[in-house]
């Protein structure tokens, strides 16, 4: 069955994907370590702790220390995954990641749950809307967000097997499973879900299934859509973006501020190529607040309806 | 089993003179760098590199080597002096400090300089890296030790204490923290900028095995390193070294301004004479 025909009724959280995959990887490779900062349960590393205690470190509520400690471990050949919430993993630890991980280009993975607006009822303080933008500006850093459970598992596996700093973003809530279990993913290579020639939609993470639904409806109305899952924000798949530029009209969709994330990254390529237009759908340069996730998405226009309306506006 | 080199106190003192001269020469040539802290740390660094540490300059990435983390990365000229004198890089490299492409970057860069175990330069962060290395050593059942030098002013950073509590939790008796207690930071005396109080007591309260010594007495440094070498009591160690910023150069001693400026030609010549004379 093609992705376009799927009903997307089975749901699972991407943080679960990390929790499941890291146990498998840790058993295969004794150099894989997990560093927790007192939120192992919600970051889904509890099974890792139970099954692989010798490869686990919990530093308590001390994120900055966790990043430096991971760097020290990496110098001895370990492959540490620092596991925390995205808002702390990207901002509280930002300078430590820059100085001790990215500058010396060490093999440290920053694996963060609760990305984007998904810590919805926790309020604006816990919603990570700038994380990918901050970390994509550090040299040597790779920035990844899977669109469902299976793609996230594959991307975690790839990150573990690829040398260098990687930021992996997961989310709290269950989201529809888009891909088959055996689908392959390559870091830095966009996944084309559908080809088309009227308009291109480039989405990532939890918004891919929204873009997928929008694409289906647009197709039903006779509008041909090219749809990309841009799971790697950095290095961005420039060739895939250039193919979209050839269509001329691009919509980006992300659960992240429209500043410096996927939308900005695509705009950079479009501006450098000197043609095409982009409309960015994402968090509209504002903080969130405590509210249901769907309400927060709606307040920022991150909806199937807005993707369709935006497509029609620029066609 | 830790191995150290057989070298007398007198020889170490001679090495300390070479270390100081080399560091000041580098900074003078570059007309940039941090002489004050380089000189306050010089005696400890000499004892570590020429006697205590189990290292092999011909194999800088030897996996069983002792590790050194210069958390106060700005005093790298004194570490670079050791690396140049021990042959990690040709001695002439000292004349390239802070130049484009040099192994001797303004702050330690492990990707550019053999013998640097971790890049540092942002204060408060190095000790965490040392803790990571020491945990790896324990888990891998290796005998290597990890030595880290922090500044007293640097202990104003909260991350130092995050790292310290982790070292105690994981019983890292293979970790030794040295505090270069020279009492000065960029803007003046620590006691005026932000008092760090009694760092020996603070580290002791965190659960460290601690000691406080004269950081310019080679006898005291060597004796202390001898005492703690085989001490496997589950506690990380902290040695507070009472030092003088700019030690060995009269016009620099205890003057905050010499934190990060280079001597001119006249000052350089005077410094070299005084350092050589200090041996007598």
What does this protein structure show overall?
The complex is a heterodimer of chains A (315) and B (280). In chain A, 40% of the residues lie in helices and 21% in strands. Chain A has helices at residues 14-28, 40-43, 46-51, 63-75, 86-92, 94-102, 131-136, 149-161, 208-220, 238-247, 262-273, 293-299, 304-314; strands at residues 11-13, 32-36, 56-58, 79-85, 109-113, 142-145, 166-169, 174-176, 191-194, 199-203, 225-229, 232-234, 249-257, 277-283. Chain A has a seven-stranded mixed β-sheet with strand order 3-2-4-5-7-6-12, sandwiched between helices. In chain A, strands 9-11-10-13-14 form a five-stranded mixed β-sheet, sandwiched between helices. The longest helix of chain A has 15 residues, at 14-28. The mean pLDDT of chain A is 97. With 280 residues, chain B is of the alpha/beta class. Chain B contains ten helices and seven strands. In chain B, the strands form two sheets. Chain B has a five-stranded parallel β-sheet, sandwiched between helices. In chain B, β6 (209-214), α9 and β7 (237-242) form a beta-alpha-beta unit. Chain B is globular and about 50 Å long. Chain A binds chain B through residues 54, 57, 59-60, 62, 64-78, 80, 95-96, 99-100, 103-105, and chain B through 63, 67, 69, 109-111, 117-122, 124-137, 139-140, 158-159, 162-163, 165-166, 170.
Q: Walk across the major sheet of chain B and give the strand order.
A: 1-2-3-7-6
Order of helices and strands of chain A: EHEHHEHEHHEHEHEEEEHEEHEHEHH
Q: Looking at the structure, what is the overall shape of chain B?
A: globular
Ends distance of chain B: 36 Å
Here the CATH topology of the largest domain in chain A equals: Rossmann fold
Report the total helices of chain A: 13
Q: Which radius of gyration of chain A do the C-alpha atoms yield?
A: 19 Å
DSSP strand tally of chain A: 14
Strand residue percentage of chain A? 15-25%
């Amino acid at each position: 069955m093609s992705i376009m025909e799927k009903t997307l009724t089975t749901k699972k959280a991407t943080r679960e994907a990390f929790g499941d995959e890291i146990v498998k990887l840790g058993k295969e490779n004794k150099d894989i370590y997990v560093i927790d900062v007192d939120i192992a349960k919600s970051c889904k590393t509890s099974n890792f702790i139970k099954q692989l205690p010798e490869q686990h470190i919990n530093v308590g509520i001390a994120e900055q220390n966790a990043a430096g400690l991971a760097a020290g471990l990496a110098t001895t050949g370990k492959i540490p995954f620092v596991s925390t919430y995205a808002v702390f993993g990207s901002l509280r630890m930002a300078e430590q990641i820059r100085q001790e991980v990215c500058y010396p280009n060490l093999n440290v993975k920053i694996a963060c749950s609760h990305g984007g607006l998904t810590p919805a009822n926790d309020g604006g303080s816990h919603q990570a809307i700038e994380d990918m933008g901050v970390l994509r500006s550090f040299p040597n850093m790779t920035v990844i967000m899977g669109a469902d459970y299976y793609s996230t598992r594959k991307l975690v596996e790839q990150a573990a097997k690829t040398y260098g700093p990687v930021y992996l973003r997961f989310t709290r809530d269950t989201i529809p499973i888009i891909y088959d279990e055996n689908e392959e993913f390559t870091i830095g290579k966009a996944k084309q879900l559908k080809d088309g020639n009227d308009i291109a939609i480039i989405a990532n993470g939890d918004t891919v299934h929204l873009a997928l639904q929008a694409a289906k409806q647009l197709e039903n109305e006779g509008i041909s859509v090219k749809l990309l899952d841009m799971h790697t924000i950095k290095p961005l798949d420039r060739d895939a973006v250039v193919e979209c530029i050839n269509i001329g009209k691009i919509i980006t969709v992300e659960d992240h501020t429209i500043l410096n994330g996927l939308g900005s990254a695509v705009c950079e390529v479009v501006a450098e190529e000197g043609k095409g237009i982009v409309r960015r759908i994402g968090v509209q340069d504002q903080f969130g607040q405590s509210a249901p996730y769907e309400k927060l998405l709606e307040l920022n226009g991150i909806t199937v309806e807005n993707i369709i309306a935006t497509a029609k506006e620029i066609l | 089993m830790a191995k150290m080199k057989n070298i007398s106190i007198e020889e170490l003192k001679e090495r300390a003179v070479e270390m100081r001269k080399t560091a000041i020469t580098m900074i003078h040539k570059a007309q940039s760098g941090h002489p004050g802290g380089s000189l306050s740390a010089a005696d400890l660094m000499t004892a570590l590199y020429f006697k205590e540490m189990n290292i092999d300059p011909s194999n800088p990435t030897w996996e069983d080597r002792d590790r050194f983390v210069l958390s106060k990365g700005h005093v790298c000229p004194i570490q670079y002096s050791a690396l140049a004198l021990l042959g990690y890089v040709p001695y002439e490299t000292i004349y390239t400090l802070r130049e484009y492409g040099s192994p001797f970057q303004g702050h330690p860069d492990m990707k550019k300089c053999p013998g640097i175990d971790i890049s540092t330069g942002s204060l408060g962060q190095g000790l965490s890296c040392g803790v990571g290395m020491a945990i790896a050593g324990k888990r891998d059942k290796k005998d290597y030790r990890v030595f880290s030098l922090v500044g007293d002013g640097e202990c104003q950073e909260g991350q130092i204490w995050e790292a310290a509590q982790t070292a105690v939790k994981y019983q890292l008796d293979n970790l030794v923290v040295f505090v270069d207690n020279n009492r000065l930071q960029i803007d003046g005396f620590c006691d005026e900028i932000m008092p760090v109080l009694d760092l020996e007591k603070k580290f002791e309260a965190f659960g460290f095995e601690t000691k406080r010594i004269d950081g310019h007495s080679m006898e005291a440094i060597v004796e202390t390193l001898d005492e703690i070498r085989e001490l496997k009591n589950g506690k990380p160690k902290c040695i507070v070294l009472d030092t003088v910023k700019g030690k060995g150069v009269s016009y620099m001693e205890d003057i905050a301004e010499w934190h990060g400026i280079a001597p001119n030609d006249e000052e350089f010549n005077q410094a070299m004479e005084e350092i050589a004379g200090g041996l007598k």
